[in-house]
Write a structure and sequence with these properties.
It is an enzyme of class 1 (oxidoreductase). By secondary structure, the protein is an alpha+beta fold. It contains 12 helices and 24 strands. The strands form 7 sheets. It has an 8-stranded mixed β-sheet with strand order 1-2-11-12-22-15-24-13. A 4-stranded antiparallel β-sheet has the order 14-23-16-21. Strand 19 and strand 20 form a beta hairpin. The structure holds zinc ion.
Length: 461
């Protein structure tokens, strides 16, 4: 089912949304969520794939159905355990004939007994000062209840559930699957041909399956549109309580996007806002943003979004030098004024933030708060501007941008570490004043709720 937003502007294509439904695709999302599809990771890493992603209209009805669960976790039976003294490894043979290897030190460090673990907190009691990192292993056996039972040289004994062990297998495939299950770092890229997924505000608030589908989509594609919220203040706070708590910043617990006299932020005017991420003036910018439309302008004020991770990968392919510059040089950002209280913040961020393996993990770009202080050697200034220009031109191409118009009651939720968003100029009328209410959350809290919902809906995890 496709929801068509009545877009009143003519220069852009009519934007459409795809409705998220709780029952059918939740299975697909969940299996995808714990499936370490190397193909998807490849999209994130690769510099050789074609520049246009596959069109993915209503993709959860199609591609997600094909996802298969990895054979990590689930029921595991240990057939045999053998001490490899010379390597100081325990070798476990599983009933499917595969093997896993566990270092002695790691096993001793993670003993699950009540002396070594505080069961009520699932936290380690064993002190590192008491851990012999060169420990040997006296004996190992598979007990009658299929546990791996170890006796250490000091006669301390440990018992491990086979499933627990298999989940923590050190093979590259198992590690990758486990990390994907924990962090859901696989992303689906999109461009202007894509439809923003949509869900019902009240369903997300009251139904765990709907909330899970919402958060899985938010993580995977970076933006989900919620319809049907009351057109009154307080809804973003209510939605944040569904997760845990919101992120307080100098702009308050929640903030009102309106045309304000003596605005302390360019967002609080009626002017055009070019594509940006919020708050790169903080070293840890908010991970997730909620924007709720209470009142729309009579004319203008359409929203624009691009997939920043996708744009960064395109830049890496099309202009590698620009990518290298933006992912290595630190840019100063500044923001000062008074709102929740008075503030004067400064930060240094890379516009394209990459992790130790070169994967794009965050976009930090807001032209309004980019500082005039530019802490670069003279000869790097011009290359920096050229690189930034190249990135901005790329993201402003019509084929990369999705445009939509919010109506009162609409609430958009998006990944502020990934998406760049903007707004077209609007006429500040006297009768109706455009008014959005916004709030921030952080990804740690959102991912925490996602894992809890996944466990509540599916039981096992
Ligand atoms: Zn112990």
């Amino acid at each position: 089912m496709i929801f068509d937003c009545k877009a009143s502007f003519s220069s852009h294509k009519k934007v459409s949304f795809t409705r998220l439904q709780a029952t059918p695709q939740i299975r697909m999302f969940s299996s995808l969520a714990c499936c370490a599809s190397r193909a998807a990771l490849h999209v994130l890493k690769s510099a050789t794939r074609p520049s246009k992603p596959a069109k993915i209209p209503r993709f959860w009805h199609q591609t997600l159905a094909a996802a298969r669960l990895p054979t990590v976790g689930g029921s595991a039976v240990a057939r045999q355990a053998q001490v490899l003294d010379h390597k100081r490894l325990l070798q476990v043979e599983w009933d499917d004939g595969s093997y896993s290897f566990y270092p002695f030190t790691w096993l001793r460090d993670n003993c699950q007994c009540p002396l070594c673990m505080l069961q009520s907190a699932q936290a380690r009691r064993l002190l590192l000062t008491d851990l012999d990192v060169h420990t040997g292993m006296d004996q190992v056996q598979i007990s009658e209840n299929n546990k791996v039972s170890i006796t250490w040289p000091d006669q301390h004994s440990s018992e491990f559930e086979p499933e627990w062990l298999k989940k923590r297998c050190f093979s590259p495939e198992a590690r990758q699957a486990r990390q994907e299950e924990l962090f859901l770092n696989e992303r689906e890229f999109w461009d202007s041909g894509w439809q923003i997924p949509m869900a019902d505000f009240e369903e997300v608030l009251h139904d765990d399956k709907a909330a899970l589908v919402w958060l899985l989509a938010l993580r995977r594609v970076g933006i989900v549109y919620l319809k049907g919220a009351p057109a009154e203040q307080g809804q973003v706070a209510k939605l944040s309580q569904r997760i845990g708590y919101l992120r307080l910043t100098f702009y308050g617990h929640t903030w009102q996007v309106q045309d304000k006299p003596m605005a302390n932020n360019v967002a609080y005017t009626s002017g055009k806002l070019s594509l940006h991420t919020d708050y790169p003036a903080l070293h840890n910018p908010p991970g997730v943003q909620f924007l709720h439309c209470l009142q729309q302008a009579v004319q203008g004020g359409e929203s624009e979004v691009v997939d920043g991770f996708h744009m960064a990968e395109l830049l890496r392919r099309e202009d590698p030098e620009a990518f290298n510059i933006l992912s290595s040089l630190y840019v100063d950002y500044t923001d000062s004024g008074s709102d929740y209280c008075d503030f004067n913040v400064q930060s240094k961020n890379r516009i394209i933030d990459v992790d130790s393996e070169g994967r794009v993990v965050r976009i930090n770009y807001n032209n309004a708060t980019r500082d005039s202080v530019l802490d670069l050697p003279l000869d790097q200034v011009q290359p920096f501007y050229s690189a930034l220009k190249s990135f901005v031109e790329l993201m402003n191409r019509p084929e990369n941008m999705v445009t939509y118009r919010m109506e009162p009651g609409d609430l958009v939720t998006f990944d502020n570490w990934r998406l760049l968003h903007g707004r077209r100029h609007y006429s500040s009328g006297t009768r109706t004043l455009r008014h959005l209410e916004g709030a921030y959350l952080d990804w740690d809290e959102v991912m925490s709720r996602l894992r809890i919902l996944r466990k509540a809906v599916h039981g096992e995890r």
